[in-house]
Design brief:
- This protein is mostly beta strands and 321 residues long.
- It has one helix and 21 strands.
- The strands form four sheets. It has an eight-stranded mixed sheet, with no helix packed on it. Strands 2, 7, 8, 12, 17, 18, 19 and 21 form an eight-stranded antiparallel sheet that branches.
- The protein starts with a helix and ends with a strand.
- The relative contact order is 0.24.
Length: 321
Amino acid sequence: MKFFLLLHIFVLSLLYAQDYQYDELDLNHTVSINSSLFLSDQQSYCRDRSNPDDVIWFEDFLEPKLNDSDWTYSRGNGFKAGKTYVWGWGNNEQQFYRDQKYKSTNTNDNLFIEDGSLKIQPIKRKYRGFKYTSARIHTKEKRVFTFPSKITFCFKVPNGIGLWPAFWLLPLNTDSWPTGGEIDIMEAKGRITNVISSALHYGNSYADKSFTVKEVAVPAAVKFQEKFHSITLEWREDSLKFFLNNEVTPYLEISPTSEDINKFNYPFNDKFYLIVNLAVGGKFDNNLIDPTALCRNKECSNHPNPDSKRFIIDWIEYSKL
């Protein structure tokens, strides 16, 4: 009886998982981009900003306070699905997400604004039975994203085995995964210097689902972990296209007739909300963690370059197409 109860809870956790489920990732699906812009050494290769008249919303983090009109903190190590609490956010993640600590800035030790950028850092410290703390914020019930639009992130990812930064979208009108779809604009593995990925999840149920994924690689000299890069999602009815920096050719695109998704209902013509987080461990990179790669305190004084262990977002732009 105990076995079947545990099995039932495990199945529920899979059914309601709201993060990555990459059980069959094909690492051969990689696009290498060697732009002429990479011939010059730049701190930022991010796409040019849009015409201000086209911008619906932007976040440039010039003020030290996180705007609570747009952002809400997620808290804990999972979520509740019915009467069952799903630990590790459905992905065996090891961090506990902290809430606001400093009221004057709406920040905490894991998430703060510095030098005109949002910075998220995991910290190795015991908290409520967990070994690590980090931060996750979202726009649910505050800011909605849908087509036709263009969403751009200018960002830098952290270095360290087990660090899993991401910005992604979940459907506003359903908690059912994957039927409502999931748009992973960017995810990265902290142990890989020059590769990131984007993905789309869809399906009729957890037992009948699939995904489309594409990895993007840049030359070693312009690795993602040392430079700012941008990803732009161009979102139209029946069409999603992903672009790196100022590239005019998408590295990933999908429509209702694309291979694999044509077997399912197309879920991306709907309203979504945005999530930004930095996880520790988890299935995305085979549950690998190097504890020495994490910060030990708010100042990250155990590393000579603290920003190398932080997920840094320079700006976010949501504009008309």
